[in-house]
Specification:
2 domains; alpha+beta; about 30% strand; 7 helices; about 300 residues; 14 strands; 60s Ribosomal Protein L30, Chain: A; Phosphoribosyl-aminoimidazole Synthetase, Chain A, domain 2; homodimer; eight-stranded mixed sheet; about 25% helix; six-stranded mixed sheet
């Protein structure tokens, strides 16, 4: 599935026509003009059996937790606060009673962020999927897009990356508060959440902003859970970290705190005018990220 | 799958806590207090392969058309106007290019009602599902719930019922304009859209309103597409009609028009204080609808 091609097609075939729609397909969430002070944010993401989880490798509770978490992470990446969730579950007849455990996971995640579950649809299905629709709001002045960074902006990530398939994908806390705290100090010029892996998501932010990037390998904060064999590859390509990648104007960099709520913020590189995606090694050598590496996530 | 039991569980375990949430799980759409004049309506419904359609019996275009249509029908049943849709598709690798035809159906339905498609998520999946989240608005004075009818209110349906599996399920036009027209004339005391069949949906409206019902068999407007063998059963139980069932106060009944935009409005019975669900035959005999008949839809 060539995700990039599909998203390009969707964007060009679903151009918003209503005047209140500020941003349709293409960012972490859609943006609707709500009133003088606030935008409405709307997003959807699904977790699907045998694609996002195996039923014998994740508990139903974890599946529910993750399904809402990935959506909250999208709202966080826009600078917003999640508010209302609608849950659509497709579930095989033989495990139908598992909906209670799935909901227990969803509800525990919802409680963390004062999200109300206001809609619930349950369909029979031959495979389990949990599809969540999440609405939130953001003060207009706090909205951060992925498309508004500039060359020379500095890239920061929250937390540690890599090996998240082990357990973090089912235990992560979306970075809502961290995003809002950084915005209240220094508003990033762009932001995206890390779901497909640093390399792929940095490319999305850079391309949406009309830039390239240069990431310094040695600066990437690698998680203890990252693959021991190839720790850097794990941090770049594993995905499912649900941390934030943000671009900060060079003039503001000195004011970026080392951590927020105990979550470290790490400078890892910068955006470039030249639209290439470069990894810089400690010995000064560089290599461009090949298209094939990205395709791993498509 | 005991749908009633599940919805009861969901309602009791997902009680809204946020003050702006007027109605959570349990009606055709959730209701959020948006501003002084309007409510926001949010709904979700999925169509799933081998449950709602067979891939060799419906075109991808029809699947897309239906997937958005069933959601617009929910917004119609609240008296609202649909505005913004987010589309989540799970699709097997071998038919991935079908997303274009699915979207063509979604977009044609969207255009009919000036709906913008503002979010699109595509996941791999072993079966095809199209899950849509739809937001709309309604003037506060025009909101109609399913739970606010009273005993002796008269029941009306739009259009004809039965046999909708043949083709209507893939061709129906949701009754948005008809709902708004009737509301501007005589506001129904309650309304619901007919997705599971007249018998099941009338029971939902009656139960939500704390009533029973008495439906006169001979008055049901039966579609030409209804099963020839048992036309009444077809109209009562087939489902997928996407017409509206509304309750009208007895004092307003004389002002109900015979049709709206060429769509007939037919009186079919009334709500009762006694909480039983009765079918009245022309010879005066009656029978209660058995629980088993409803379970057909669960």
């Amino acid at each position: 599935m060539e995700e990039e091609k599909i998203i390009k097609w969707l964007k060009s075939h679903c151009l918003p026509e209503r005047k209140e729609v500020q941003i349709g397909i293409g960012d972490d969430a859609a943006v609707i003009n709500l009133n003088k002070t606030h935008y409405l944010l709307l997003t959807t993401d699904a977790v699907v059996e045998n694609v996002h989880f195996k039923i014998d490798q994740a508990s139903f509770y974890q599946i529910g937790w993750k399904a809402l978490g990935v959506n909250i992470s999208d709202i966080a990446a826009m600078g917003g606060s999640p508010l209302w969730a609608l849950v659509s579950i497709g579930i095989p007849q033989k495990i139908v009673s598992a909906y209670r455990e799935i909901y227990r996971g969803i509800r525990d995640m919802a409680k963390l962020f004062n999200v109300d579950i206001i809609g619930g649809n349950l369909s029979r299905s031959e495979i389990l999927f949990v599809d969540i629709f999440l609405a939130g709001t953001v003060k207009k002045k706090n909205l951060v897009l992925r498309s508004t960074a500039k060359p020379e902006d500095i890239l920061f990530v929250t937390g540690q990356l890599g090996g998240s398939q082990k357990k973090k994908q089912f235990e992560f806390i979306p970075r809502v508060k961290e995003a809002q705290t950084i915005i209240s100090h220094i508003k990033p010029t762009a932001m995206i959440d890390l779901s497909d892996g640093l390399a792929a998501d940095a490319k999305k932010l850079a391309e949406a902003s009309g830039c390239g990037f240069e990431i310094e390998i040695s600066k990437i904060p690698v998680s203890q859970d990252a693959s021991e064999k190839n720790r850097i590859s794990s941090a770049l390509y594993d995905g499912e970290d649900y941390e934030l990648l943000m671009a900060i104007s060079p003039k503001s960099v000195s004011r970026v705190p080392a951590s927020i709520n105990g979550v470290p913020l790490t400078e890892i590189g910068k955006l470039t005018k030249k639209k290439v995606f470069v990894l810089k090694h400690t010995n000064g050598s560089t290599n461009k990220i090949s298209k094939e590496k990205f395709r791993h996530f498509e």
